[in-house]
Amino acid sequence: MKYLHAMVRVTDPDATIRFFELLGLKETRRMTSEKGRFTLIYLAAPSDEQAEVELTHNWDPEDYTGGRNFGHLAYRVDNIYETCQRLMDAGVTINRPPRDGFMAFVRTPDGISIELLQDGRLDPAEPWSSMANTGSW
């Protein structure tokens, strides 16, 4: 058995791709089905192209609630503080700050929860260690 990808449904592919690019992922391939009225966009970290996230954009509008879109994706990062700062500088809310120097949560434009995990551990540091949670994660 081999892990292939995780799929999330998205309403605004461009906004979601921009979000994942902020994390460092790149588009690896794209498929469009006129008959099925959907587009599949695959993204992966440059150092881990085999582990993809599939963005499914159904052309007909639909509200995704109650797990229809997904739970969360997790990514290991080299420096959680730098990653969270880059996201915050781009207007992304840090829902669960990396107070412990290890774990943070953010959300995509479609509300998909993204868990960020530090490769190793960093010492707790301000402003992160005293930052409160925002919203749900």
Q: Estimate percent helicity.
A: 10-25%
Looking at the structure, what is the overall shape? globular
Q: What is the gyration radius calculated from CA atoms?
A: 16 Å
| Order of neighbouring strands in the sheet with most strands | 1-4-3-2
Q: Tell me the distance between the termini.
A: 30 Å
Coarse structural class: alpha/beta
Q: Could you list the spans in which at least 5 consecutive residues all have pLDDT below 50?
A: none
Largest sheet: 4 strands, mixed
Question: What this model shows, in words?
Answer:
The protein is α/β, with parallel strands linked by helices. Helix content is about 15%, strand content about 40%. The protein is built from 2 helices and 8 strands, in the order βαββββαβββ. Strands 1-4-3-2 form a 4-stranded mixed sheet, covered by helices on one side. It has a 4-stranded mixed sheet with strand order 5-8-7-6, covered by helices on one side. It starts with a strand and ends in a 19-residue tail after the last strand.
Show the helix and strand layout.
Elements: E1 5-9, H1 13-23, E2 26-33, E3 38-45, E4 48-58, E5 72-77, H2 80-89, E6 94-96, E7 103-107, E8 113-118
Parallel strand pairs: 1-4, 5-8
Antiparallel strand pairs: 2-3, 3-4, 6-7, 7-8
Could you give a short description of this structure?
The chain has about 140 residues and is α/β, with parallel strands linked by helices. The protein is about 15% helix and about 40% strand.
